[in-house]
Amino acid sequence: MALKYQAQIGLAIAAVFICLNVLYFGFESAIAVRRIIHERQRHPGSIVNAQYLAPLVIVLLGGILIPFLFVGERDHQNSCSKNVDADIAGRGIRFAAWAQIGVLLFVALLGTFHNRATMAKEIGAGLVVTHLSLSIALLINRQYGQPTTAEMVLGSMMLDAQNSALSIPLVTKETLAARWQVVITVVCQGFGLALLGVILHEIGDGKFVVCDCRCVAVAWWGDAGAGDGNCDNALPFLHIVRRQDMRALWVYYSCRLISYAQSSFHSLMNMEAFHKAENQPQGEGILNGLTFPQVHPEPRSWLQQLIFKRKPKSEYEKYMTTVSLAYLVYGMFAITSMVAVECAMAKIKPGGVEKITIGQAIAIVVAAATILRAVWLLHKVRNGGWEVPPVIEALTSGCSGRQN
Length: 404
Fold this sequence. Notes:
404 residues, transmembrane, two-stranded antiparallel ribbon, transmembrane helix, mainly alpha
């Protein structure tokens, strides 16, 4: 019953997030459509406020609902003695993923309040390399190796975490100004998502179930694995196995496709404007025609917004580093998948993850460089302008006013 209960919980939570992501993308699309129709840079008012608040609401609900994905114990044996490819789920690979995702979120958070919190471009480029490396390792193992369900489930979780985190650099002005990196990141993300869909389909069909790992199911969105119908050791092992309930994972996969469409749309539509603005002397290039509003729009008072209908000019140098709060949603999905990886590793206890490989060594070097960049960033942002997004400022001032 635990597996069935977990699948139902995962399905319900995934359905909530896909609805919220559709609404969020709809708000952002409404801004772009309105500007095209009116052919003027008017401040969309309530639509903009909804766009600011949408990621905050999604992350708040995520903090409440996502822990339920990992509640409850399974009714059957969850271990798998087969070795797992260290280039897929080794300690070095996981450490590098945690470091890159954590630093990207840290940089994006600083960039929400600061105009010099850069380096997201370099860290994002490193994540592209590690994501492609993991994708190639999964492809080779799937095609020429003897992968188990445990190995492919862990690999798909890692792949999803990295894939979601790749959207974070796409909401920073430095990355948006680098057109080739935007295109490469979008293509890399699309390839990773396509591979993830293929692996999930094959997991659901029980293609990777082998004799000594026939009974593996771990918490992710629902339960990912072979399914409890294959756990009776009294029954002879058959190639045709009982399929796992994958509905929750497919709903979540659809949610990830929407997030990918959202980040790709905005990054591809806005990269030319940021590229031209960055190349102007002394960072005074003007940003026009963006598909999302500024996180720090000016003028900031409601009276000024009523008087000045025309959108004010936005200089690239003074523009906050992070141009959208969508990174909160991307980071939430990435962290959820990484937590699922660590929980699965603790339950399955696979072998081979401590093996030192070239892939793990490269990942550790990349992680170390990422952490050093984060330390340097703290020194760099001491100078420059700090600013609080107006919606957050309005919320905090409103709460303090009520208390008074």
